[in-house]
Amino acid sequence: MYQQMIFVNLAVNDVDASKKFFTELGYTINPQFSTDDCACVVISDTIVAMMLSKQRYADFTKKEIADPTTTSEVLLCLSAESRAKVDELVDKALAAGGTGTEEAMDQGFMYGRSFDDLDGHTWEVMWMDPAAVQG
Description:
With 135 residues, the chain is an alpha+beta fold. It has four helices and nine strands. The chain has helices spanning 15-24, 54-57, 83-95, 130-134; strands at 6-12, 28-29, 38-42, 47-53, 75-79, 99-100, 105-106, 110-116, 122-128. Strand 2 and strand 3 form a beta hairpin. InterPro entries: Glyas_Bleomycin-R_OHBP_Dase, Glyoxy/Ble-like_N.
């Protein structure tokens, strides 16, 4: 069966700093699809984040590039396998220079936290009790 992938393209100020940030979170960089102006961050087998210099990003759009420190262009949400994994990933992001954005959201069956990366893109990390999803 074909597994559809998602490639999230984000404009960044410093490609090398983004590479360092996301590797500190435990992700890998695919060198085959990375250049001086683009980092291919492998999040999973089906999720890839392309960190593009603003100049490279502009090659793909005629629209003004949003400043994620002052506007919200997208909310990126990643699932986690447990509450502890939510905390682990967000804590790594904060230690690597990210910024906490909200208090933890805890509804018992669902738990999440979020952070802004070095460029201000907001990443949410969520865990949901599988039994609650099935029920």
